[in-house]
Amino acid sequence: MDSPYCRKYAKEGVVSSALDSYGRTVSSGSSARVRILKIVGLRSDEGADRKRRPAFRTMVANSARVVDEWLPVKDWSTDAVNQWHASAPVPYCWSYHSVPGAGDWLGNSLLLLPM
Question: What pTM does this model have?
Answer without folding.
Answer: 0.67
